[in-house]
Amino acid sequence: MKSDFIPINPTIIRVMRVLRIARVLKLLKMAKGIRALLDTVMQALPQVGNLGLLFFLLFFIFAALGVELFGR
């Protein structure tokens, strides 16, 4: 079965991706509420990372304890 498609130059696809990203960045530049929200999220990321590390450590400890208690 012959596939019917039009060959597209990869450079055109790259240009379209860049334009799509530029459009999103332009939207973020215009929307002050979204920008304030993103700034807040960026400021909170270090604390979220610390919390994620704490959860990982707790899960690891309880997993090791579970293997010791309920493993063969």
From TrEMBL:
Location of this chain's protein in the cell: Membrane
GO cellular component, one term: voltage-gated sodium channel complex
Superkingdom as given in the UniProt entry: Eukaryota
Membrane topology listed for this record: Multi-pass membrane protein
A GO term, aspect molecular function: low voltage-gated calcium channel activity
GO BP annotation list: calcium ion import; membrane depolarization during action potential
Entry keywords, A to Z: Membrane, Transmembrane, Transmembrane helix
Transmembrane regions listed in the UniProt entry: 51-71
Domain Ion transport: 9-70
Listed name of the protein: Voltage-dependent T-type calcium channel subunit alpha-1H-like 1
Organism annotation: Homarus americanus (American lobster)
